[in-house]
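so im writing up the methods section and need the Phosphoglycolate phosphatase record in one place, dumping it here so i stop losing it
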Amino acid sequence: MTVNFDDIKYIAFDLDGTLVDSVPDLAEGIRMALADHDLHTVTDNEVRNWIGNGAEIMLKRALSQNVTIKPDIDEALYQKVRERFDFHYANNGHDKTIVYPGVKETLAELKAAGYTLGVVTNKPYQFVPEILTDLNLAQFFTDVIGGDSLPTNKPDPEGLFSLRDKHSLSNENMLMVGDSKNDILAAKNAGYVSVGLTYGYNYGEPISDSAPEFVADHFNQLLTVLSTEKTA
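--- predicted struct ---
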């Protein structure tokens, strides 16, 4: 893909593993939901490899105790565990969820530079506004799309297309930033340029394997990528 960063007007960000490290709170919610039904427990490190495809797949991976979901998962049991997870995750606060270094400062600079910013996450929408508000991130974003805001979620490009169309932009105006292959695939499926972050959750795979146009080790390198490419 030919990239001209002079054309970028809108930057869409993933949430978990990109803007915030939410594993401790997600893992605690899962552990409590499983305990409510006298099931096995899970570790933070296990949960770290199960995030990225939305709550349903995350919880079915937890029930399977593996990133590969067992084909014989009891749907009724999943629904019961999902109900308890939603309750615990909504009511236990997000005290253990932290913003990654450089995120707030970088978002402030991007917004001041005139970019429109949005969040496109596979996390259920009901949890997202509160997390953004609690962590003092909400003021940066014009749009927030959750995993259940539309009929599909990443890597389907529907969410990215909806932002493009809402703001009367073109593919060349859009940039996707994320830590997971789902983010990069969504960008590729939409025909958008992408930046992959190495520090988040990607099932133990290097984000470079998904071939984003740029790879960054730290969130604030996004400023360098944009400014370097604009002046190149």
